[in-house]
């Protein structure tokens, strides 16, 4: 035993205090260390730089519905691993790992409740579940949410967050693009509004389908929104892209997004839009 260990063992040092691993969080925007509790109480928005952090489906639904109360709608069952896909892991193993780390069975969860006193169905994509990727389960859940909105005679609000189509389902994932588009057309024929909230990130096949078909397009500040990645576009056109390209504010300035709304104002904004759009439909 070394002399330093003998001294340490002989002296009455106080035991080391254990600090919870989740006490602090580092802001992805400004790199400031924030108390996790304060950060979450601020709706996962950095109080210093206003960076809007990514949040899960349950937190999002609780923020949007009145008094945080809502009914989670059952997700339709779909065939898993239809292509028997395998890369470095089997697709069922990836699904199993994603489900172990998330509260829901796949990347889109529907809730039914009231927003500002108005009944609505809200569908939220969970980016933490395989990057919010759109496969058959997401497509089926989206269509089921639309059908419930038609049945309830209320709007459907889609909160998007996705890296695009789910590669493990190949062409079957791409088929969800026209499938969800047809469902939106049915909602419109039923006379109900369709509102989209674009959050960070919304890309790929989701952007190329239901994420850009809203009667009103809302985006959170700083959200990355696009189809192909910036580097791919730059290499294709061989030109330097403008500053802030594919960010919510740039898209708003160029007419692709109707409004950029801070998370603190999102629920109130949705309530006003639903009130206006449902009144217009009834008139």
Q: Reading side by side through the largest sheet, how are the strands ordered?
A: 3-4-5-6-7-8-9
CATH architecture descriptor name of the largest domain: Alpha-Beta Complex
Question: N- to C-terminal separation?
Answer: 87 Å
Number of extended strands: 9
**Strand percentage:** 15-25%
Kindly report the CATH topology of the largest domain.
2-enoyl-CoA Hydratase, Chain A, domain 1
Described by the principal axes of the CA atoms, the overall outline is globular
Quote the average pLDDT: 93
Number of domains: 2
Helical segment tally? 11
Which stretches are low in confidence, meaning pLDDT under 50 for 5 or more residues running? none
**CATH class type of the largest domain:** Alpha Beta
Q: Over the alpha carbons, how many angstroms does the gyration radius reach?
A: 22 Å
Helix vs. strand class: alpha/beta
Elements, N to C (H/E): HEEHHEHEEHEHHEHEHHEH
Q: Output the CATH homologous superfamily of the largest domain.
A: 2-enoyl-CoA Hydratase, Chain A, domain 1
Helix content: 25-40%
- Strand count, sense and closure of the main sheet? 7 strands, mixed
């Amino acid at each position: 035993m070394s002399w330093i260990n003998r001294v340490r063992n002989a002296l009455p040092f106080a035991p080391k205090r254990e600090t919870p691993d989740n006490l602090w969080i580092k802001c992805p925007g400004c790199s400031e260390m924030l108390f996790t509790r304060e950060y979450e109480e601020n709706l996962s928005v950095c109080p210093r730089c206003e960076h809007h952090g990514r949040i899960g489906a349950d937190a999002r639904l609780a923020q949007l519905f009145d008094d945080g109360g809502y009914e989670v709608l059952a997700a339709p069952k779909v065939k898993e691993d239809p292509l028997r896909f395998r890369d470095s892991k089997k697709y069922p193993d990836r699904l199993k790992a994603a489900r172990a780390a998330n509260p829901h069975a796949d990347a889109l969860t529907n809730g039914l409740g009231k927003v500002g006193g108005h009944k609505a169905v809200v569908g939220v994509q969970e980016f933490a579940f395989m990057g919010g990727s759109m496969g058959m389960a997401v497509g089926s859940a989206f269509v089921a949410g639309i059908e419930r909105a038609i049945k309830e005679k209320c709007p459907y609000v889609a909160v998007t967050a996705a890296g695009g189509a789910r590669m493990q389902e190949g062409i079957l994932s791409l088929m969800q693009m026209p499938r969800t588009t047809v469902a939106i057309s049915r909602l419109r024929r039923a006379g109900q509004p369709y509102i989209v909230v674009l959050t960070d990130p919304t890309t790929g096949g989701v952007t190329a389908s239901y994420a850009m078909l809203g009667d009103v397009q809302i985006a959170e500040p700083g959200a990355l929104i696009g189809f192909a990645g910036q580097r791919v576009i730059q290499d294709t056109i061989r030109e330097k892209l403008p500053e802030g390209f594919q960010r919510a504010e740039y898209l708003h300035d160029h007419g692709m997004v109707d409004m950029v709304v801070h998370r603190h104002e999102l629920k109130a904004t949705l309530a006003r839009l639903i009130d206006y759009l449902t009144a217009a439909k009834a008139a």
